[in-house]
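Re-run with default settings, no changes from the original entry. Doing this only to confirm the output is reproducible before filing.
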Amino acid sequence: MRGWWAGFILAGVVSVSAAEEPVNRIGFGSCYKPEKSTPLWGKVAEFDPQVWLWLGDNGYPDVIGGKLIKQDLPKDAFKNGYAALGQSEGIATLKKLPAGHMMATWDDHDFGLNDAGKSWARKDEAKDAFDAFWRQGVHEDGVYSARDFGPEGKRVRVILLDTRYNRDDPGEEGDVLGKPQWDWLGKQLQKPGAQLVVIGSSIQVLAHQHRFEKWGNFPKAKARLFELIRDSGAKGVILISGDRHHAEISKLAKNPAGYPLFDVTSSGLTEKSSVRNEPNDLRMGEVYVGRNFGVIQVDWNQADPVVSLEIRDEEGKTVRETSFPLSQLAPPRG
């Protein structure tokens, strides 16, 4: 166990040469049970991502022997969960990535308790286990992180949020991030130099009609997120999310940010649901319920770079997609 974790010690150190290479292929996913095998990882390898983002439920330490543990989580659950992840097909596929080009946040199951928030008694134990495995640096109040990739003029900023450690119970006034993370997020959005900003949230940001976990359960916090994007002047913001055991692309054309916001939900890498007709008036096309991973591609060779957002299935086929010029994601002038 310690030996595998040691392999991630340099994950937060990005070499200059790797960091300056333009990034045009980003892969991401969520909801992964390491004991399950899937041909999906072969298709991820064929896609050959330059950056991979884990959006939560990257393992299920609270599922033991196929049973969800809702209370009295065993003492060694996190240790065993990360040991399984470290030996998994997914990590083996992605370990060739340059240092720092694999980033992660968590959701409720790798946090340790289904649907949990800030009142989870073992959240610091969970944070220590996350840090020991991923070695990307954590904060006193959570596992949020950010990193820039690519040279000037072709720079991608990845911001991964922590929607668990300081999250209130759902409600009109409930918060998701906590003050330190809000302040940090504002600084990341205000920082100049990025042409594309990818914000990863473990739970969906745009979809608002279903009954499960989502930013819509925290209306004030959701409005604050949109307003923060607007007030920062950040351009090129794209949202990605996981959690749901299905995939979809949502688009909110009119919002305080001043330009269309897309939320690409990719879930799960091994898990899938029976959802077919769940309402989402922001969905582009239909929901996809097979195992899947998400893709962001950028054609930097165009005068106006073209961004493609995709969902790919276990056979590597693109099953959902939308493309647009990067200039479409720019605040209105004046």
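The first helix runs from residue 2 to 6. The chain has a mean pLDDT of 94.
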